Every structure is written in structure tokens, then in C-alpha cells.
TrEMBL record:
GO terms for molecular function: hydrolase activity. The lineage of its organism: Bacteria, Pseudomonadati, Pseudomonadota, Alphaproteobacteria, Rhodobacterales. It comes from Cognatishimia activa. This is Cell wall hydrolase. Keywords: Hydrolase, Signal. Residues 93-202 form the Cell wall hydrolase SleB domain.
Length: 211
């Protein structure tokens, strides 16, 4: 009954305007914030928008260059730096959706028991061992030099969004990917989950138990 009464109160507050000079209760404040967020997502503005959560709560995300460029550039910790660098060297020439998709794979790996448990460890897995690098730029013998600052800032913004709870709905849980112009043998062992931009994405095939 208490839950039902609370729901009725919330509906009543949504329908009742709060005077500007009247102190709002915490519930009223929360409802007002939620209404303002929903207003941002009405009509055509809903298309292309997703939500991620950070310390400020739910924030709208649009996977376009214009939207990314309009966001502030915020440096982060070591894990952020690793992800931003990986996106720069692995995906800066991709579409924005493709860049988000590569970030998904890295974060999916970090959460999988089959891979190292941090972003930096995932990216550097196998580095220094011939043909064992998981991300080719870490063992191509070239220095990781940032030459396109604007592209790097975009990758840094995407890294910030994804590390703070950005949605992972492009690759259906993929933990592998490769460029469309190559055909690696390992890809035959996995299930392709998506194609985004210039990359195919995969995850391990699910084995069904037999009785």
C-alpha cells in the first residue's frame, strides 16, 4: 500500500506546477529534473540519443561528430588514458558509431573472466610477444605518437562517456573484432554479432548443454 500511495503522490506532483518561490521537496526536485530530461528527448530529438550515467546522473548521448565536438574535454585516470589512446590508434578513422563500438569491445573484455580485468591490461595483453598482441598498434614497432590533437580529444570524450556507464548496445556483447578487408581464421570460431563501420564484431559461440 505504501508503494501505491507513493506512486499516486508522484503522479499528482507531476500534474501540479510548483511555484517558483516555494521551496521544493527532494521528491519534487527529482521529478522536476526527470521532466526536464524527458523534455529534451521529445519528438525528433529522441532519434540518435542514448543515456549514460555519471556522477551528475543520466545524460543524453548522441553518436555524431557534432555532438561529440560540443562536449567538454575532460582528462581522466590511467584507465581513461589507455582507452583514449587505443581508440585513437585503432579507430580514429572510423565513424563515431564505429569508435563507440570498439570501446564496447574493450570494456566487454575488461568485464569478462576470459581477459585481464582492467582496460589497460586488456589493451596491452600480449604486447612484446610476436603474434600475440591483441591490439596491433601495441606491437607494430612504432612509437605511439599523437599527431592529430582534435581526433585525440574526440577519442578522449568517447572514453570518458563509456567509462562512466555509456550504453553498450552496438555490438551485442562482442569481445572480438576485425577490419572488414581481412578474413582471419579465428573469426570462423566465433559468432558475428554486428558490423559497424569498417569492422565486424564477434563473441564466443554459446555452447548448449546436452543431457
Amino acid at each position: 500500500m505504501r508503494i501505491f500511495r507513493n506512486a499516486i503522490m508522484a503522479l499528482a506532483l507531476l500534474a501540479t506546477p510548483v511555484a517558483a518561490d516555494t521551496p521544493a521537496s527532494p521528491l519534487e526536485q527529482a521529478l522536476a529534473v526527470e521532466q526536464s530530461r524527458m523534455a529534451l528527448l521529445n519528438g525528433d530529438r529522441l532519434k540518435g540519443f542514448l543515456l549514460f550515467r555519471n556522477k551528475r546522473g543520466a545524460q543524453p548521448v548522441e553518436r555524431t561528430i557534432e555532438w561529440i565536438d560540443a562536449q567538454p574535454f575532460l582528462e581522466g585516470d590511467k584507465q581513461w588514458a589507455c582507452l583514449a589512446e587505443a581508440l585513437y590508434f585503432e579507430a580514429r578513422g572510423e565513424s563515431t558509431a564505429g569508435q563507440f563500438a570498439v570501446a564496447e569491445v574493450i570494456l566487454n573484455r575488461a568485464e569478462s573472466r576470459r581477459f585481464p580485468n582492467t582496460v589497460c591490461k586488456v589493451i596491452n595483453q600480449g604486447t612484446g610477444r610476436k603474434h600475440r598482441c591483441q591490439f596491433s598498434y601495441t606491437c607494430d614497432g612504432l612509437a605511439e605518437t599523437i599527431t592529430d590533437q582534435r581526433a585525440y580529444e574526440r577519442m578522449g570524450k568517447i572514453a570518458h562517456i563509456m567509462l562512466n556507464g555509456g550504453p553498450r548496445d552496438l555490438t551485442d556483447g562482442a569481445t572480438f573484432y576485425h577490419a572488414k578487408y581481412v578474413n582471419p581464421a579465428w573469426a570462423r570460431q566465433f559468432t558475428r554479432t554486428a558490423t559497424v563501420g569498417q569492422h565486424h564484431f564477434y563473441r564466443r559461440a554459446t555452447r548448449l548443454s546436452q543431457n
